Amino acid sequence: MSNYHIKHLEEYYQVYRKSIREPENFWEEIAEEHFIWRKKWDKVLEWDFKKPEVKWFQGAKLNITENCIDRHLATRGDKTAILFEPNNPDEAAEHITYLQLSERVNQFANVLKDHGIKKGDRVCIYVPMIPELAIATLACARIGAIHSVVFAGFSSTALSTRINDSDCKMVITSDGSYRGAKTIDLKGIVDEALESCPGVENVLVAKRINSDIDMKQGRDKWLQPLLDAASTKCEAEVMDAEDPLFILYTSGSTGLPKGMVHTTAGYMVYTAYTFKNAFQYKENDVYWCTADIGWITGHSYIVYGPLANGATTVLFEGVPSYPDFGRFWNIIEKHKVNQFYTAPTAIRALAKQGTGLVDIYDLSSLKVLGSVGEPINEEAWHWYNDNVGKKKSPIIDTWWQTETGGIMITPIPYVTPTKPTYATLPFIGIQPVLMDENGEELKGNQVDGRLCIKFPWPSIARTIWGNHERYKETYFSAYKNMYFTGDGALRDEVGYYRITGRVDDVIIVSGHNLGTAPIEDAINEHPAVAESAIVGFPHDIKGSALYGYVTLKDFGETRVHDNLRREINQIITEHIGPIAKLDKIQFSEGLPKTRSGKIMRRILRKISCNEMDNLGDTSTLLNPEVVQSIIDNRL
Ligand code: WTA
């Protein structure tokens, strides 16, 4: 049993060594002792990073919802599974017990079945942070449908791209959503998206803001009456270990977003095991992750990981600034939150408000503070540690990715001594390596390189939906027999890892991954634009913000540049969503290019970061003269 819940550092090293020496035995024991299976596996692991192919627990049969819900009913039926805190603090919080969750998931699953959804079908879920979002994902899992949750802040174009990429038959949405003092017309966005999604047969609409919306006859239905009429019993579909559980899109450096495919058994085992240990969750704790279920953090650590452990997981609809910047602290006090998991960008935004609001609430319930999504800078780390944790709650800086499914490098609280800005040690079963630019492994400590993982773990994404070649190319071709993360990292003198940031064309803005190519494609659709290049530059709150260099077809364009800037951001909002808006847009006569015509983003990146004395050799450029003019006109 001790392997499942690590309690001191020596034990961590012991368990870690075992997990590396005998990975199959190790994961088999965890899987056997802590989950329920319809049938056990024939083989624990089969893998080949060259193909690439990874299979865990082959031959096993299970349903993840039986592990997340049914098995808790005997002992935890009345325990709160999901604690819903609405956007408006005056609206009562809703405690959904495991029993109620079971009934609601089964009703929803029956409604899906009544609408022709069966095992393997894709269902797009475009729902704000209300209980229906978690319930819809679990209902899909109940019947073996593959959910594809799209963050409800994405635009109609981004939504339709994702719906079409995985041929979703159904969309689940709501009339609208609350976001602080604002409401958002989600159904309107869905209607617009569906103009270009011929494969969608049905739209189920949850009522949240009671707005007056159009319902398309034959296609759109209100959800609640269907749920009310449905049975609270629904037999779970028996799934193979390697059957897809969900698709979740993440930005790539080029082209369309990548639909990462996660499968059932390995994902369940790893998210449950990491949840238990990384948060040191104990039976009556109240756990809160502030992410949106539209991102991987919400999938793994609001829904599946916590529920697989029979935990109480808070689902918060609102934003940290509404009705004021004390909202997070207010919720922690109100629900006596024990584990709190958020993003550096939120911490920086809250730190900017000073300590007045954080000091007036009682935060003494907190035991563990988590951080995820981007490197946490030293100042934010200390603010979080001093003012939220009162130097008593360890901060776990958890590094991982949509592709990894679960936490990969993290301190274990009360076990691993923390160090500001360091994600510290690999989690059990994880074998990170640092590589140099020539493909050689950097051995020993005090080295700095590109972060790869050399052995599979249970929740690694198995493919990109419909494009296995791209999966291979993106993650398994840079280094032989390694999974390449796209991140840079260093290992200090004691073997602690610090993530230094992306080494590809992905920019992390407020914790959201944004690929440069889709933004550039959007900008280039503006009739006045000839070409564009996006780079990241440091930003106090967002971590990184976007700097766009744009050349116009007619540089002497008579329209005022400020109007053009607004129009460009408008196009980006329409194509991707407001999160991808540019902070700075500089119009220039040309962009620095190599002789083969490739834009040298490296130079633009340096200029936007004000590192002009460090531009490297520009003489080999096709057009070295533009560099000076870009520098002279920088914003
Ligand atoms: C970055 C989020 C530094 C990293 C779970 C990674 C981090 C990308 C950290 C994945 C961290 C995430 N420290 N960087 N603790 N956590 N990142 O797919 O660049 O949305 O590759 O998954 O976020 O972002 P994603």
UniProtKB/TrEMBL annotation:
<dbReference type="InterPro" id="IPR042099">
    <property type="entry name" value="ANL_N_sf"/>
</dbReference>
<feature type="domain" description="Acetyl-coenzyme A synthetase N-terminal">
    <location>
        <begin position="12"/>
        <end position="68"/>
    </location>
</feature>
<keyword id="KW-0436">Ligase</keyword>
<feature type="domain" description="AMP-dependent synthetase/ligase">
    <location>
        <begin position="70"/>
        <end position="461"/>
    </location>
</feature>
<dbReference type="InterPro" id="IPR020845">
    <property type="entry name" value="AMP-binding_CS"/>
</dbReference>
<dbReference type="Pfam" id="PF16177">
    <property type="entry name" value="ACAS_N"/>
</dbReference>
<keyword id="KW-0007">Acetylation</keyword>
<keyword id="KW-0547">Nucleotide-binding</keyword>
<protein>
    <recommendedName>
        <fullName>Acetate--CoA ligase</fullName>
        <ecNumber>6.2.1.1</ecNumber>
    </recommendedName>
</protein>
<dbReference type="InterPro" id="IPR032387">
    <property type="entry name" value="ACAS_N"/>
</dbReference>
<feature type="domain" description="AMP-binding enzyme C-terminal">
    <location>
        <begin position="519"/>
        <end position="598"/>
    </location>
</feature>
<dbReference type="GO" id="GO:0005524">
    <property type="term" value="F:ATP binding"/>
</dbReference>
<dbReference type="InterPro" id="IPR045851">
    <property type="entry name" value="AMP-bd_C_sf"/>
</dbReference>
<dbReference type="InterPro" id="IPR000873">
    <property type="entry name" value="AMP-dep_synth/lig_dom"/>
</dbReference>
<dbReference type="Pfam" id="PF13193">
    <property type="entry name" value="AMP-binding_C"/>
</dbReference>
<dbReference type="InterPro" id="IPR011904">
    <property type="entry name" value="Ac_CoA_lig"/>
</dbReference>
<dbReference type="Pfam" id="PF00501">
    <property type="entry name" value="AMP-binding"/>
</dbReference>
<keyword id="KW-0067">ATP-binding</keyword>
<dbReference type="InterPro" id="IPR025110">
    <property type="entry name" value="AMP-bd_C"/>
</dbReference>
<comment type="similarity">
    <text>Belongs to the ATP-dependent AMP-binding enzyme family.</text>
</comment>
<dbReference type="GO" id="GO:0003987">
    <property type="term" value="F:acetate-CoA ligase activity"/>
</dbReference>
<dbReference type="GO" id="GO:0019427">
    <property type="term" value="P:acetyl-CoA biosynthetic process from acetate"/>
</dbReference>
<dbReference type="GO" id="GO:0016208">
    <property type="term" value="F:AMP binding"/>
</dbReference>
